[in-house]
Amino acid sequence: MILERMAAAGEEVKLVGSWGSSFVVRVGIALHLKGVGYELSQEEYGKKSELLLKSNPVYKKMPVLIHNGKPICESMIIVEYVDEVWASAGPSILPADPYEHAIARFWAAYVDDKLPSAVRILMGALEGSKEQAIEQIFTTVQLLEDAFTKCCKGKKFFGGETIGYIDIAFGSCLGWLKAVEKMFGVKFFDGEKSPLLVGWAERFCSNDAVVNIMPQVEMLIGYSKAFEKKN
């Protein structure tokens, strides 16, 4: 579960969202990597607070980062913002090299295109074929196994020795993927088919910037019941 941290004196850093959202988890990880304290304004599933609607009047979705009164929306845009604003704090999240920067954004966009919708179908929050959703996740994981080989360059994470942009985009989904594995009796991360990602996932989830933010599987399974009640 996301833990709040004290913000720097005279600086307002507020994260609007729910602890069970992988998109909110992304922002929490980025802030922790940079050592930036923040206040979590908890959103309840199925309801939208006045603060959320005011801060994101276009999409009306979480997360929103409010920095000194200014709202920033969309999870990976927020991650980029955090990396730029607190550039001198903690490791760089996005690569400095333009090509590697573009590749990181490509794979992050791929993750967003394939995983959240599949998970939502399996959780009953979105209509669709559960069989096709599971197959889509398997395909995505396999392609990301291949991408890891090229991006990590023999190091611990997609971003190298430290957690980077792709790590945050993909890693934030691990809690829900593990919940799906348990609920449907499948295994997306296999020692034979995706050995590199098995090791990566263990390192990612045990990282200091992640360990207290990533929701526990049982809590997510309980959280998923809210989807069932709404449908």
TrEMBL record:
The keyword Transferase applies. GO terms for cellular component: cytoplasm. InterPro entries: Glutathione-S-Trfase_C-like, Glutathione-S-Trfase_C_sf, Glutathione_S-Trfase, Glutathione_S-Trfase_N, GST_C, GST_C_Tau, Omega/Tau-like, Thioredoxin-like_sf. Pfam families: GST_C, GST_N. One of its GO terms (biological process) is toxin catabolic process. Its EC number is 2.5.1.18. Keywords: Transferase. Residues 11-90 form the GST N-terminal domain. GO terms for molecular function: glutathione transferase activity. Residues 97-231 form the GST C-terminal domain. It catalyses: RX + glutathione = an S-substituted glutathione + a halide anion + H(+). It is an enzyme of class 2 (transferase). SUPFAM superfamilies: GST C-terminal domain-like, Thioredoxin-like. Belongs to the GST superfamily. Tau family. This is glutathione transferase. It comes from Phoenix dactylifera (Date palm).
